[in-house]
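Design a sequence for this backbone.
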């Protein structure tokens, strides 16, 4: 009898997981997925829950299965700056580091698949494809950080807010594919967090949302539910 941890040689836990197809686990073969599944566990975290503390020893890594994680850096005077967001099926963690340099917090309710750091480091030695996949993600994050530097340093307030909405639309609405021009999603950040992320005041963010609504670029219900009728129009407003 086949072990119930797997279906057609792929663990049932992994078969329908986006990280299996688009994340780091795509680099693993069936036997490695089975081994990883035995030491991994899925769990949920509520909005605002800390996932990894800054300067905390790294004991495990995670794949983001759903929801949004925000990464923050704390300054010496206690102020925090949002420096990045992680979406499904992003990998959460920094391989080869023993201590976290950032704080990771659930911006929304999130679902995670976590596994011991040692398990991943062993598999990187056994499977060069996994190390290559992690390097690809690191380079992708570097490219995204550079793009965001342009957004923060050169774009107008209107372009910054449009760029933020475009980022969210493309990452948390599965219908926002290249062949579709409409997106619907719930804002994963508060107005205060959006202002922090964009280097703007809350009042400026609110004014830009009002302007986008008035121009028919977005519709907002209940202060968080956003509909973008045309992603191409939103992109034009982002200055990209």
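Sequence:
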């Amino acid at each position: 009898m086949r072990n119930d941890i797997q279906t057609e040689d792929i663990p049932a836990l992994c078969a329908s997981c986006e990280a299996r197809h688009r994340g780091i686990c795509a680099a693993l073969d069936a036997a490695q997925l089975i081994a990883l599944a035995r030491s991994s566990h899925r769990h949920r975290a509520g909005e605002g829950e800390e996932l990894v503390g800054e300067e905390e020893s790294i004991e495990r890594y995670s794949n983001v299965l759903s929801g949004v994680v925000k990464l923050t850096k704390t300054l010496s005077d206690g102020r925090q700056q949002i420096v990045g967001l992680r979406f499904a099926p992003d990998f959460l963690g920094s391989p080869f580091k023993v201590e976290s340099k950032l704080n990771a917090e659930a911006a929304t309710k999130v679902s995670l698949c976590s596994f011991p750091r040692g398990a991943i480091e062993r598999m990187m030695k056994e499977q060069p494809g996994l190390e290559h996949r992690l390097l690809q993600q690191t380079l992708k994050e570097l490219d995204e950080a550079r793009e965001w530097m342009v957004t923060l340093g050169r774009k107008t307030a209107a372009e910054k807010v449009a760029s933020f909405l475009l980022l969210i639309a493309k990452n948390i609405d599965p219908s926002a594919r290249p062949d579709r021009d409409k997106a619907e999603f719930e804002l994963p950040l508060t107005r205060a967090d959006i202002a922090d992320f964009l280097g703007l005041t809350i009042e400026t963010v609110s004014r830009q949302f009002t302007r986008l609504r008035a121009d028919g670029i977005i519709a907002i219900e209940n202060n968080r539910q956003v509909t973008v009728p045309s992603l191409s129009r939103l992109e034009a407003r982002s200055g990209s």
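The two ends are 55 Å apart (CA to CA).
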